[in-house]
C-alpha cells in the first residue's frame, strides 16, 4: 500500500527492514473522493499528506471569495500547511482532492516520536523541503520573467498530462490567469 | 564572530560544547564589499551563506539583461542555490551584497562530514527550509491575490527598515514592479 512512499523515501535515504516496518505501521491510509477535503481553512493542519494516487490542490479563499490555488499535489508530492502543522495554529488553506485520490498520512501527533526512532527522516524531509523551496523560488522567478502566455506554455510543456487532467479554471487559478485567457491561448495554438 | 549563527541554530536544536566548537572550526568568515559577488551565474554554488550583517540579493538575469531579484538575504537568513549546491551544476543565479556584508560560509565539500558528526543539523536545516518553503508559498499567494500597490504596502509594513535600506530599483525588481510605479505609490502616500 505504501510502496510508492517507501520508494520515494529510499531515493534520498536508506531504511532498514525495521525502519520500513515501523514507518508503515504508523502511517495512515485514506482514499479521498473527488472534491473531498483533507484540510479546511480555520482548522489546524494536523497531518502531512503524501499523494499515492490522484491529485490534491492547496488553495486560499480570497476576499472576493475567489479560490487562489497555491500548489497542486501529484503522486510523489507532500502537501501540508507547515506553519499550521508545526505551531498547532488554524490554517488559512484548504486541501481538496481534484479527483479520487489516495494519500499516506503522517500525523503531527506521532511525528516527533517517529523522527526520534528514524533520525534519517530528518534528512529525507530536509532534502524534500530544500527541493520544494528551490522549485518555488524558480516559480517566483518565472512569474515575473514571463508573460501569462509564456507561463502557460512553459507549464504545458513541463506537465503535458496534467494540463488535460485538471479543469481549466483550476489551472488558470494556479497560473494567476483567467480561464478566458487560457481559452484564447489554446484556441491560438489549435489554429 | 559566529555568535549570531550559533544563536540562530540553537533556536531550533541543541548543540553541546564540542558541537559548537566543531561548527565554528569548519565555517568560513567573509566580509563582502558593497556590490561584491558571492556567486556569479554560470559557476557552481559551492557554499551556503549565512548572513551575519548587511544584506545580500539573489537574482537572475533575464533575456533582456534586466535583473530579476528572487530574494534578499538579511541577517539570520541563509542564501544558496540548492540545486547547484547539491548537484554540483552551474547556477543560473548571482548572489551579490547590496551593502558591506559579513557572512558565515558552509562549504559543500565539508557539509556531509559535518552533518555526519552533528546529525541534528539535518533537523535544523529541515526546519529552516520548511519555513522558507512556507514563506515562498505565502509569497506566491500574495502575488496573485494583491495588486502591485497592495504588495508594496504589505512589504513596507512588514519590513519598514528594509524599504529605506535598498535602492528603489531593487525593491521594484523584488516585487515585480517598475521603479516608476513605486515612486508614484510613495508620492501618493506622502500627500
From TrEMBL, chains A, B:
Ranges for the Cyclic nucleotide-binding domain? 31-115
> Any coiled-coil ranges, and where?
none
Q: According to the UniProt entry, where is the signal peptide?
A: none
One Pfam family matching this protein: cNMP_binding
Name the UniProt record assigns to this protein: CRP-like cAMP-binding protein
Amino acid at each position: 500500500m505504501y510502496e510508492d512512499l517507501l520508494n520515494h523515501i529510499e531515493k534520498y535515504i536508506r531504511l532498514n527492514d525495521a525502519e520500513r516496518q515501523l514507518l508503515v505501521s504508523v502511517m495512515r491510509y485514506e482514499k479521498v473522493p473527488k472534491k473531498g477535503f483533507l484540510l479546511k481553512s480555520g482548522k489546524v493542519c494536523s497531518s502531512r499528506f503524501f499523494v499515492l494516487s490522484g491529485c490534491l490542490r492547496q488553495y486560499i479563499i480570497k476576499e472576493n471569495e475567489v479560490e487562489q490555488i497555491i500548489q497542486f499535489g501529484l503522486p510523489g508530492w507532500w502537501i501540508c500547511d507547515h506553519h499550521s502543522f508545526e505551531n498547532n495554529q488554524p490554517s488559512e488553506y484548504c486541501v481538496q482532492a481534484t479527483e479520487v485520490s489516495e494519500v499516506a498520512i503522517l500525523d503531527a501527533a506521532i511525528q516527533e516520536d517517529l523522527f526520534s526512532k528514524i533520525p534519517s527522516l530528518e534528512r529525507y524531509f530536509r532534502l524534500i523541503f530544500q527541493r520544494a523551496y528551490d522549485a518555488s523560488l524558480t516559480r517566483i522567478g518565472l512569474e515575473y520573467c514571463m508573460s501569462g502566455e509564456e507561463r502557460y506554455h512553459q507549464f504545458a510543456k513541463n506537465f503535458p498530462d496534467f494540463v488535460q487532467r485538471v479543469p481549466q479554471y483550476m489551472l488558470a487559478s494556479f497560473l494567476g490567469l483567467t480561464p478566458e485567457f487560457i481559452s484564447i491561448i489554446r484556441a491560438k495554438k489549435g489554429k
